[in-house]
Amino acid sequence: PEDCLYQDELKQWTDDPRIDVLITVDNANEDWVGPVGVVTNLLRRIKVDASNSAVFVCGPRILNRVAAWQFLQLHVPSDRVFVSLERNMNCGFGRCGHCQYGAKFVCKDGPVFPFDEVADIFGKEEV
């Protein structure tokens, strides 16, 4: 909890009745009263108005995969679920292919993609 970034912004978002902010930590200290554990455990608490929601997922590959699929199960349209992809980049303009993800290049086409654009390769390794 003491390493939490953007504490002022999180407080503002928490105070906004239009936004639901859920925070979890990996390691709680004695002052922490919130949830402890992985982010995807928080998704079970979410009530989603799928027709009025957009989802942005950023994190390690497994988090992106699990969170994206969970939001799809909640009927959020795949073109409104956005995933941030991490790939090893080298040149930064799509020439070397280090960050190629199927037909897309993370460096020049991303790094954030609507899920429907990468769904066919999202669960595959080494694409």
Short synopsis of the structure:
This protein is α+β, with helices and mostly antiparallel strands and 127 residues long.
Identify the notable features of this structure and list them briefly:
127 residues; alpha+beta; three-stranded mixed sheet; 5 helices
Number of helices: 5
Strand % is 5-15%
The assigned structural class equals alpha+beta
Q: Helical content, roughly?
A: 25-40%
Instruction: Give, in spatial order, the strands making up the sheet with the most strands.
Output: 1-2-5
Distance between the termini: 36 Å
Molecular structure report:
- The protein is 27% helix and 12% strand.
- It contains 5 helices and 5 strands.
- The termini are far apart.
- It has 127 residues and is α+β, with helices and mostly antiparallel strands.
Write the layout of secondary structure elements.
Elements: H1 7-15, H2 39-42, E1 55-58, H3 61-73, E2 81-84, E3 100-101, E4 104-105, H4 106-109, E5 112-114, H5 115-118
Parallel strand pairs: 1-2
Antiparallel strand pairs: 2-5, 3-4
